[in-house]
Write a structure and sequence with these properties.
Largest sheet: 6 strands, mixed
CATH topology of one domain: Rossmann fold
Number of strands: 15
Order of helices and strands: EEEEEHEHEHEHEHEHEHEHEHHEHHE
Distance between the termini: 68 Å
Number of helices: 12
Radius of gyration: 21 Å
CATH class of one domain: Alpha Beta
Bound molecules: pyridoxal-5'-phosphate
Length: 410
C-alpha cells in the first residue's frame, strides 16, 4: 500500500463513508459515498507510527508537507504547491487584558497562498485530482475557495469553472478570473451555485470540487490540527473557536486530533471545538441547540462574513459530531459584533482580521459572558483570511499642501 515521497512512505489504507462506514478503494476518483455522504481518508496508523517519530518533524521544512505521512498524495510529482507555509500563532496580550482571559492566540491563516486557509484544502484536492487524472474541475464558492482552486488548477494545468453568488466580494471574483478560471456570478446562494455544478457535471465532464463532495480538502485542512498540536508542543489548548461555513476545517482538525491520539503523539485531552456562525446564517447553531443530528437549510441567509454564509452543509452531522464529542458548543454573533470585534483587534493587536475571523473573537467574548467559556481556558481564534481581501471603511481626510496646515487639528 505504500509508495514514496522523498523516501517517506504514505499510508492511505482506504476511504470510508462518514455515515455508514462502508469502505472504498483509495487511488480511484471518488465524490460522495453511495449514501450521499462525505468520504474520509483512512490511514494505516500503526504502520505510520512505526515509520516516523514526532521529533523527526523538527528537521523538516516549515510547510504542510512536513506532515506528508498524514497526507494522501502517493507520488511526489503529483504535488501542486504554492508554498503552503506553517502559519504563525500570535499571542494576544492586549485582548487578554481587555477580556480578563488567560491566554488568547490568533492563528493567522491569512499568510497562506491566495490569502486564505482555503489554500490548505485546495492544495491537497488539486494535487490528488492531478494524481488521479482529472482534466476539468468545477466548484461553487463564496470567494476564497474559488480563488485557491483557480490558483492551484492554473499551476496544475487543469481547466477550472467557478460559480459565485452575485454578491461575492468583487476582489474574489476578479482574483479568480485573473488566475485563468472561467468564473460566473449567479443570482442565488452557494447552494444554488452547487446545483449548477451538480446538474452540469455529466455534460461538461467536470470533477465536482464542492466542499466535502470530494475526500481530500478535509485532509488539507487537517494540517491546521497537526500544526497546532506541534506548535503547542503536543499539549493542545482548551478551546478552538472556528468560523464555520461548510465545516471542513473543524471536521479536519477533529480528525487530526483523533489520528494523533491514536498514534500516541497527543494524550486524550483535546480542545473543545466551538462552531462560530453569524446570526444571519446559523443552521449549525440551531441544530446544536435543538439536539438534532442534521441541520435544516437556513432561509434568507445574510452576513458580512461571506465565508460562513452557507445555508446548508453536506457535512453538517460531522460538524455537530465534532462539537459534541469535544464538549464544545455552537454560537452565533451579529454582524455589528463582528465588525466591532474586527475594529478592536486591529486597533489593539495590529492584526487586520477577515470578518469571519473577527467573528471568533466576538463569539469568545459572548461565550465568556454567557459562562460557556471560563477565563482560565486558553483559546485559539482563527483568522481564516487576510483582512485585505475585504471592503474596509473609506478614509475621508485630505490635506492641501499648498496652504498652511493647522497641525493641532490633525
Ligand atoms: C471558507 C471560509 C470559512 C469557513 O470554512 P469552512 O472550513 O468551510 O467552514 C471561514 N472563513 C473564511 C474567510 C473562509 O474563506
Amino acid at each position: 500500500m505504500t509508495n514514496r515521497i522523498d523516501d517517506q512512505p504514505t499510508f492511505v489504507a482506504h476511504l470510508e463513508c462518514s455515515e455508514t462506514g462502508k469502505q472504498y478503494p483509495a487511488d480511484q476518483l471518488h465524490g460522495l459515498s453511495d449514501a450521499g455522504k462525505p468520504l474520509l481518508v483512512r490511514y494505516d496508523l500503526p504502520a505510520l507510527s512505526l515509520a516516523i517519530d514526532r521529533d523527526v518533524l523538527r528537521s523538516r521544512p516549515q510547510d504542510i508537507w512536513r506532515y506528508r505521512e498524514f497526507l494522501p498524495v502517493r507520488e511526489k510529482q503529483s504535488i501542486v504547491s504554492l508554498g503552503e507555509s506553517m502559519t504563525p500563532l500570535l499571542p494576544c496580550l492586549n485582548l487578554q487584558d481587555q477580556t480578563g482571559g488567560s491566554a488568547i492566540y490568533i492563528k493567522d491563516e491569512g499568510r497562506l497562498p491566495t490569502g486564505s486557509f482555503k489554500a490548505r484544502g485546495l492544495c491537497l484536492a488539486v494535487s490528488m485530482a492531478k494524481e488521479l487524472g482529472v482534466k476539468k474541475i468545477a466548484m461553487p464558492t463564496n470567494g476564497n475557495a474559488g480563488a485557491a482552486l483557480a490558483a492551484y488548477a492554473a499551476r496544475a494545468g487543469i481547466e477550472c469553472f467557478v460559480f459565485c453568488p452575485d454578491d461575492t466580494p468583487q476582489i474574489n471574483i476578479r482574483e479568480i478570473a485573473a488566475q485563468n478560471a472561467s468564473v460566473w456570478c449567479v443570482n442565488g446562494y452557494i447552494n444554488d451555485c452547487g446545483k449548477i455544478v451538480g446538474d452540469g457535471k455529466a455534460a461538461m465532464n467536470w470533477f465536482d470540487m464542492s466542499t466535502l463532495k470530494e475526500p481530500y480538502r478535509i485532509e488539507g485542512k487537517k494540517t491546521m490540527g497537526l500544526e497546532l498540536a506541534e506548535q503547542f508542543n503536543w499539549e493542545l489548548p482548551d478551546v478552538i473557536m472556528y468560523p464555520t461555513g461548510g465545516g471542513t476545517g473543524l471536521i479536519g482538525m477533529w480528525k487530526a486530533f483523533a489520528e494523533l491520539e491514536a498514534i500516541g503523539w497527543i494524550g486524550s485531552k483535546k480542545p473543545r471545538m466551538v462552531a462560530v456562525q453569524a446570526s444571519g446564517c446559523a443552521p449549525i447553531v440551531k441544530a446544536f441547540e435543538e439536539g438534532a443530528k442534521h441541520a435544516s437549510p437556513w432561509a434568507n441567509a445574510h452576513t458580512v462574513a461571506a465565508g460562513i454564509r452557507v445555508p446548508a452543509a453536506v457535512g453538517d452531522f460531522l460538524i455537530l459530531q465534532g462539537v459534541r464529542e469535544s464538549d464544545g458548543f455552537a454560537i452565533a454573533v451579529d454582524d455589528d459584533q463582528i465588525l466591532q470585534a474586527r475594529h478592536e483587534i486591529s486597533c489593539k493587536e495590529g492584526v487586520l482580521m477577515c470578518p469571519e475571523g473577527a467573528a471568533t473573537y466576538a463569539a469568545y467574548k459572548q461565550g465568556l459572558a454567557e459562562g460557556l467559556i471560563t477565563k482560565d481556558e486558553s483559546v485559539i481564534l482563527f483568522n481564516c483570511a487576510t483582512g485585505l481581501k475585504y471592503p474596509l471603511a473609506p478614509v475621508e481626510n485630505t490635506l492641501d499642501y499648498t496652504k498652511p496646515i493647522d497641525y493641532s487639528s490633525l
